Amino acid sequence: MLSPKKQKFVDYIKCFIDENDRPPTFVEIMSGLGFKSLGTINWYIVELEKEGLIERVKGHNGKRALSVLEQNIVNKLPMLGLVAAGMPIEVFENVEYVDVPSKYIHNENYVLKVDGNSMKNDGILDGDFVVVKKIKVAQPGDTVVAVVNGEATLKKYYLGEKGVELHPRNEHYNIIHVSEDDELYIQGQVLGVFREYN
Fold it and tell me: What total number of domains does the chain contain?
């Protein structure tokens, strides 16, 4: 798995190619990523070449250009456990890695498997996988993994008149009203959902 800095470097090149139909020059990479020297750019390129993620090719004007070898990029995140309404997160003893879209690759992100249908109206179904970003402070409307008095739940986060409210997206489940006496931890914000078809 790539370090966050190397991932950012590869992502910048991919985005630049998508937007401009050509690879960036070293100077453009330096400017785009805020590096101070061309030597740093060269170091990243040599390292990523060794890992088989990019290669130098001839550009349209005969100058050297870069090509991102998409098929060699590993887009996996750790699946840490199972999140169900009203239960502590069941942490898996053996962490397995699951494929996710490249936009979700970040060292602060992880995957949980969903147990239950409390969020079905948002398209999050029993057995789905959610990509979660570690955060401690949520914004109203965020879908979060919250732990209330030791019990984890996947809900929409809102601020009501009497404090935090955790809203299900299924009419058969009740809103959780968090009082001042409750212990509330926000463990993460849901960035995306995916499911596997066997």
Answer: 2
